[in-house]
């Protein structure tokens, strides 16, 4: 079974530029998550999708971050404009369904550096 | 106060040692407790989870939850160099769509 795919793996941009990350979840997984992991911290949920609907985006900085999951499969996360404090690893995860112990499978992440 | 607190380490132990990793949490609504392992440059992977209080064993790993003291532990017996990774504890409330709350992670090195 193929895992969660993410691209690019690394990205370096200057502040105020825009950047987009892509995620392809495990086939058949209805729930998709985007996390932000700052160096030395645990992952923090940015947004959760159930199929193509948003379940939770309470911690997404909506003035600069946006995400979509058209057709309920792939997802993109965009930052526009980027700030220095956005430097982090952006992790995508998927699970069969939402729920307490539905195991979340994580991708390798995209490491973003904002200069 | 963060909802899940975890000492970031780093923790260095010799091969074969028993490792104890710990977290505390503040939200009484948390019912499920997970341990994730994260290798360098990789995403986290679920090691094991427990519901409410008690112990759960899986091979060399034992997860323990004490709800009275809001304390979560992971024990690794006969530690191996391949166990070197960051270990993240996480908790979730007893309702369907609430998010996982992670600790900072503890970086473990097992020296051969």
Protein model, in words:
The complex is a heterodimer of chains A (115) and B (112). Chain A is built from no helices and 11 strands. The model of chain A has no long low-confidence stretch (mean pLDDT 93). In chain A, a hairpin with a 6-residue loop joins strand 4 and strand 5. The N and C termini of chain A lie far apart (37 Å). Chain A is mainly beta and 115 residues long. Helices cover 0% and strands 48% of the residues of chain A. In chain A, the strands form 2 sheets. In chain A, strands 2, 4, 5, 6, 9, 10 and 11 form a 7-stranded mixed sheet that branches. A 4-stranded antiparallel sheet of chain A has the order 1-3-8-7, with no helix packed on it. Chain B has 112 residues and is mainly β. Chain B is built from no helices and 11 strands. Chain B has strands at residues 4-6, 11-14, 19-25, 30-38, 45-51, 54-58, 61-66, 71-76, 85-93, 101-102, 106-111. In chain B, strand 7 (61-66) and strand 8 (71-76) form a beta hairpin. Chains A and B meet through strand 5 and strand 10 of A and strand 5 and strand 9 of B.
Beta fraction of the residues of chain B?
over 45%
Shape of chain B: globular
Supply the number of helical segments of chain A: 0
Structural class of chain A: mainly beta
β-strand percent of chain A reads over 45%
Which oligomeric state applies? heterodimer
Distance between the termini of chain A: 37 Å
Question: Low-confidence segments of chain A, ≥5 residues, pLDDT <50?
Answer: none
* Secondary structure tally: strands of chain B: 11
The largest sheet of chain B is: 6 strands, mixed
Helix percent band of chain B:
under 10%
Radius of gyration of chain B: 13 Å
| Bulk shape of chain A | globular
Sequence of secondary-structure elements of chain A: EEEEEEEEEEE
List the helices and strands and how they pair.
The complex is a heterodimer of chains A (115) and B (112).
Chain A: E1 5-7, E2 10-13, E3 19-24, E4 31-37, E5 44-50, E6 53-56, E7 65-68, E8 75-79, E9 88-95, E10 105-106, E11 110-114
Chain B: E1 4-6, E2 11-14, E3 19-25, E4 30-38, E5 45-51, E6 54-58, E7 61-66, E8 71-76, E9 85-93, E10 101-102, E11 106-111
Parallel strand pairs in B: 2-11
Antiparallel strand pairs in B: 1-3, 3-8, 4-5, 4-9, 6-7, 7-8, 9-10, 9-11
């Amino acid at each position: 079974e193929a895992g969660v795919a993410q691209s690019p793996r690394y990205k370096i941009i200057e502040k105020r530029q825009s950047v987009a990350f892509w995620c392809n979840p495990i086939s058949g997984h209805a729930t998709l998550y985007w996390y932000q992991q700052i160096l030395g911290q645990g992952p923090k949920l940015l947004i959760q999708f159930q199929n193509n609907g948003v379940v939770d985006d309470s911690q997404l900085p909506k003035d600069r971050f946006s995400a979509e999951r058209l057709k309920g499969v792939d997802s993109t996360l965009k930052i526009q404009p980027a700030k220095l404090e956005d430097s982090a690893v952006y992790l995508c995860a998927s699970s069969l369904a939402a729920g307490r112990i539905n195991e979340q499978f994580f991708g390798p992440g995209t490491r973003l550096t904002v200069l | 106060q963060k909802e899940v607190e975890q000492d970031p380490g780093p923790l260095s132990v010799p091969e074969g040692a028993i490792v104890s990793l710990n977290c505390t949490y503040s939200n009484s609504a948390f019912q499920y407790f997970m341990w994730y392992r994260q290798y360098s440059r990789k995403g986290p992977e679920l090691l094991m989870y427990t519901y409410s209080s008690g112990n759960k064993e899986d091979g060399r790993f034992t997860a323990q939850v004490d709800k009275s003291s809001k304390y979560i532990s992971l024990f690794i017996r006969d530690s191996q160099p391949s166990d070197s990774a960051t270990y993240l504890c996480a908790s979730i409330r007893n309702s369907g769509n609430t998010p996982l709350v992670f600790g900072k992670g503890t970086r473990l090195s097992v020296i051969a």
